[in-house]
Amino acid sequence: MAMDLEKIEGLVKIIENSSMTEFTYKDEEVKITMSKLDHPPVVAAGVPMAPHAPAPAVPSPAEAAEEEEDSLFITSPIVGTFYSAPSPDAQPFVKIGDRVKNGQTVCILEAMKLMNEIQSDFDCEIEAVLVSNEQKVEYGQPLFRVKRL
User: Fold this and answer.
1) pTM
2) Fewer CB within 10 A of the end CB, N or C, for the chain?
3) What is the Cα–Cα distance from 65 to 53, expressed in whole angstroms?
4) Do residues 104 and 98 make contact, with C-beta atoms less than 8 angstroms apart?
5) How far is residue 13's CA from residue 36's CA, in Å, rounded to a whole number?
6) Fold type of domain 47-53+60-148
7) Secondary structure of residue 14 in the 3-state scheme
8) Phi first, then psi: what are they for 79, rounded to 5°?
9) What is the side-by-side strand order in the sheet with 80-83?
10) SS3 for 98-119, per residue?
11) Which residues have a Cβ under 8 Å from the Cβ of 30 and sit 6 or more positions away?
């Protein structure tokens, strides 16, 4: 027996009116995970780009498949807001083409008003920055496509 819409709506109201930021419900047939955002979610197709940032190049499907097979990623270890630099007027931690050492900071993720420095777990070269500054990111979301050195 699946969970009915009234029960789901009830769970949503409970989460909205509580201090919880994430909730998961699971039984034999249904798994529901809800996360509370501090603003409306951004649709990937409409992700705002910084005014000075160039538009990302869109590879052909064949190129994309080939890149995916050979690529490594630095992914988000938490849900939060991505910051490419330590302050709005500072240079980004890394940019495309930069060589990064194991343990080097590549970005900051803000979660619950805490600034978390994200570091590379290996020596690599940044091939692509996959998110824009101040974009909300999810757990496990790729932030950078890299090539291991």
Assistant:
1) 0.55
2) N
3) 25
4) no
5) 11
6) OB fold (Dihydrolipoamide Acetyltransferase, E2P) (2.40.50)
7) helix
8) -85, 135
9) 114-119, 105-111, 80-83, 136-137
10) CEECCCCEEEEEEECCEEEEEE
11) 2, 3
pLDDT digits over 66-101, tens only? 545 567 999 999 999 999 999 999 999 999 999 999
d(CA 78, CA 109): 8
Query: How far apart (Å, rounded) are the C-alpha atoms in residues 108 and 81?
Result: 8
Angle CA(90)–CA(131)–CA(70) in degrees, nearest 5? 120
- The continuous run of DSSP H or E covering 13 comes out as helix 5-16
Which of 139, 132, 70, 138 has its CA nearest to residue 107?
Answer: 132
Tokens of 40: 């409306």
Six-digit token pair at 14?
């409970």
Asked which of 18-27, 38-47, 72-81, 86-95 is least confident by mean pLDDT, the reply is 38-47
* Domain coordinates in residue numbering, the chain: 5-35, 47-53+60-148
